[in-house]
Design a protein that fits this description.
The complex is a heterodimer of chains A (113) and B (114). With 113 residues, chain A is mostly beta strands. Chain A is 0% helix and 50% strand. Classes of the chains: A mainly beta (113), B mainly beta (114).
């Protein structure tokens, strides 16, 4: 299956707070789990990714955690800044290595200053 | 700029006309993907190529859509007999030989069908 769901669909936080977005997927063969950021009018860009041989990966203020047994992975943003305001998409790879990414519907993150 | 390039950036057409979009991937990338994105939604997979071979086509894609990558470099996406429901942003992406998984997207081609 190729079901991908993200929660929440919108998220408003105060500048400096943390934000967490969760993604659930159905394909047990998935082994690559990226998050993309899309600013208004721009192209989606990769911000962080994780493979199924690790449970967590950090890159400065962002981190991704993976629970492969439960088929979900989450994006964590700490010390949010106004420039973090964007739409975030999870996009697990479907069908095993080298195959397509299936995007979730997106989460609109608003960081209020 | 050596990123993914798409043309035209905007296309307005009347219902029933044919349109063609072109994508030039990053030169050393062997995989090329087409996605479609409508307002408030995530990119929806259409098709992808490895070199010149079309490896998968979405079953949601009607027969009016066809894509080619004849020499394993640039790709074209043609939509025949356009319908208003085809109005969307058509995104092209490529990924490299190292198969890291990362997709590099172009700016997209916005189609408006009147």
């Amino acid at each position: 299956g190729e079901n991908v769901e993200q929660h929440p669909s919108t998220l408003s936080v105060q500048e400096g707070d943390s934000a967490v977005i969760k993604c659930t997927y159905s394909d047990s063969a998935s082994n690559y789990f990226p998050w993309y950021k899309q600013e208004l009018g721009k192209r989606p860009q990769l911000i962080i990714d994780i493979r199924s041989n690790v449970g967590e990966k950090k890159d400065q203020r962002i981190a991704v955690t993976l629970n492969k047994t439960a088929k979900h992975f989450s994006l964590h943003i700490t010390e949010t800044q106004p420039e973090d305001s964007a739409v975030y998409f999870c996009a697990p790879q479907v069908g095993g290595y080298g195959n397509k990414l299936v995007f979730g519907a997106g989460t609109i993150l608003r960081v209020k200053s | 700029d050596t990123g993914v390039s798409q043309n035209p950036r905007h296309k307005i057409t009347k219902r029933g006309q044919n349109v063609t979009f072109r994508c030039d991937p990053i030169s050393e990338h062997n995989r090329l993907y087409w996605y479609r994105q409508t307002l408030g939604q995530g990119p929806e997979f259409l098709t992808y190529f490895q070199n010149e071979a079309q490896l998968e086509k979405s079953r949601l894609l009607s027969d009016r859509f066809s894509a080619e990558r004849p020499k394993g470099s640039f790709s074209t996406l043609e939509i025949q007999r356009t319908e208003q429901g085809d109005s969307a942003m058509y995104l092209c992406a490529s990924s490299g030989r190292l198969n890291t998984g990362e997709l590099f997207f172009g700016e997209g081609s916005r189609l408006t069908v009147l």
